[in-house]
Amino acid sequence: MKPDTHDCALTAAERSLREIVEAGATNKVLRKEKLSDTIVLFELDNPLIARNAVAGQFVVVRPNTLGERIPLTISDADKVRGTITIIFQVVGRTTMELARIKEGECVPDVCGPLGTPSEIENYGTAICVGGGVGIAFLRPITKALKEAGNEVITILGAREKSLLILENEMRELSDELILTTDDGSYGIKGVVTGPIKEMLDSGRKIDYIFAIGPMPMMRAVAETTRPYGVKTVVSLDPIMIDGTGMCGGCRVTVGGQTKFTCVDGPDFDGHEVDWDELKIRKAYYFAEEQAAKEMAAKEEN
Amino acid sequence: MSRIKERQPMPQQPAEERIKNFLEVALGYSEEQALAEAQRCLSCKKKPCVEGCPVMVDIPEFVALAAEGKFLEAAASLKKNNSLPAICGRVCPQEEQCEKFCLLGKTGQPVAIGRIERFVADYEALHSNGNIGEYEGPKDPMLAKYGVAVVGSGPAGLTVAGDLAKMGYSVTIFEALHDTGGVLRYGIPEFRLPRNILNREIEYVQSLGAKIVKNVVIGKTVTIDELLSGGFDAVFVATGAGAPQMMNIPGENLNGVLSGNEWLTRINLMRAFRFPEYGTPLKKPKKVAVIGAGNTAMDCTRTALRVGAEEVAIVYRRSRAEMPARAEEIENAEHEGVKFHLLTNPIRFIGDDKGWLVSMECLKMELGEPDDSGRRRPVPIPGSEFIMEVDTAIIAIGQTPNPLIRTTTEGLKTTRWGGIVIDEATGMTSIPGVFAGGDAVTGAATVITAMGAGKIAAKGIDKYIREKYGLPVPSEEPVQEESKGNGQNP
């Protein structure tokens, strides 16, 4: 069986809620951009999701009619245009399939905004930390923290220069921007925890840290800040199916209690997360994911 | 009495065959069988069977038509009161409803009403050349401008949508998932309810004029308040009981421990049993324990067998008599090779050093005094701990209503356990214009009780909108005799 392709109709601009909801959303890709070799941006027509989306929320996306449901953080929501922006890194079969959708075509299923919004208030001085494709998800939170009156220091890290995305946008949103690359091809050589530790050691008053990116990076940030007792919030992305609290596949232990990431999160106190358990749970389908990836790569050629 | 013939048996796929496939287990009556079974009906004047039907299908009427071989007419008769007959004929617990009241049941076996219903609905599907069936009843064109939002496309939502669309309202169903049917699709496996049957029944509701918008989570994408202020005149909440109950015992988050909902959603909705053709993966289990003994638990065991598990067992803390699943489902599971560890309760999941489930520690139980539910309370036997080796444990001990709507709708009254409180007569909640029904109100129950609630709410919504806009109330349809047994005098 072959998955259906993605065709759809255009939507009108100004309509009442009843008209908008009755029409549904087309999820047409109005803009497709390659931010790096493996990172893709979609701006999607979905006035329904754009209406209520706030920083920290995500959508569940399915790339075709046979595809898997995966959660992706909403990178931006334009209430006037009625669009949302999602950014994803091509790492496996589902993201490969998603990346095949062309500008002008439609993503079959986009559901959201899901999850509990990030807690935004004026903490004082906040550090926003983004790693790899996580930088894309950091944007709405950085923006919200800045608008709430915080002094925002942004630290972006990536393996190498080409993966360090959205530098200019993030510079505009931040009072201070620090860049790191593992190989030293750009910014400070090393990982994001270096500048964080330096800042905390220097005695500078840091009130709040938000980190989003690969799990080892978020864990490292949490471990770095733990001795200093600075509140550190992380945005988790465990395996998820429905995203509405129905399956419990996204269970995480936080402060000794089981939470469903999709409804109780995705933001949690990084010092309270059981990282060992999360690592194991994220690897649940590792073998199957590898097989699917190889299959998809063959299809690609 | 000697003239009364035996009930026609249901042809089934042999157990050893069917555990290798996802095709329907019960094969359905042949035309000869359907005729013979329908002819067993005594056509009682009092129609006791109708009292047992939550949607008041005129059972003797459709059975009499079937007995004459007028199957298409029988289908039309069924559809007057039931928009989903092919589903009900398959998944209703008839033994506790219509068939329980059948006069033949007093001395022998009741008429197999459900099986005849199923045959008639399937016959219509087969003989309509892919045509879904036109609804030719009266639609009031005046009502088209009034919009009703239905939240959830499960049995309660489909029933309300079908009934209101038949009256002439503009109905929009919002479904949170990417596919329709709610628990009928993510919960009930296709060997009990084939997908083409489900799709056809949903298409029928759409053909009546109901529109379905998928991927919209009411409470998140749009709130109830926004629906009411944004152009909808009434809202029906039919979000089911989709939140899984976990056991809260050590080791529950090990890899290999899943909720029944996750297990069934992966297989039924996402079709992970056909991975990698489908994108959602499934870990092939070897030794499976399903904890709980309701219909969901039985569905979990039987899907586990079909994806290749070597050993599958029910682990249940009470005894056989208290098992909440339908007798037929328990029997099916047993025939397929499912083992039953009764009076057994897991107290801990045990993992290996990599975090994968390898066994669970259980306690033997005995039955004590009856509890609130009237069932005898299971009491642990001290010192009876033992280890059961399993690589997959599926927790199917119950579901509660999803809190998404409750927590985002101010003023919506709910019970202690999260069920939405309604006026039984109209289905209206504590918020004017907001109605509710099905598992979201009752907690996990059956398809047909949800449909019964939908029927009541559809009338309640019609009345509410007519009163709100001062529309004439159509003369009451002639009620079939006097309603009995509700203790109310007119």
Describe the structure.
- The complex is a heterodimer of chains A (301) and B (490).
- Chain A has 301 residues and is an alpha/beta fold.
- Chain A has helices at residues 17-23, 47-52, 93-99, 134-147, 167-173, 193-201, 215-225, 261-264, 275-282, 286-300; strands at residues 29-34, 39-45, 58-62, 70-78, 83-89, 109-114, 125-131, 151-158, 176-181, 188-189, 208-212, 232-235, 251-254, 257-260, 267-269.
- In chain A, the strands form three sheets. Chain A has a seven-stranded mixed sheet, with helices on both faces. In chain A, strands 1-2-5-4-3-6 form a six-stranded antiparallel sheet.
- The two termini of chain A are 19 Å apart.
- Chain B is α/β, with parallel strands linked by helices.
- Chain B folds into three domains: 15-126, Alpha-helical ferredoxin (Fumarate Reductase Iron-sulfur Protein, Chain B, domain 2); 141-242 and 400-473, FAD/NAD(P)-binding domain (3-Layer(bba) Sandwich), CATH 3.50.50.60; 246-397, 3-Layer(bba) Sandwich (FAD/NAD(P)-binding domain), CATH 3.50.50.
- In chain B, α6 packs antiparallel against α7 and α8 packs parallel to α17 (447-469).
- The longest helix of chain B has 23 residues, at 447-469.
- Chain B is globular and about 70 Å long.
- Chains A and B meet through α1, α2, α3, β6 and β13 of A and α11, β5 and α12 of B.
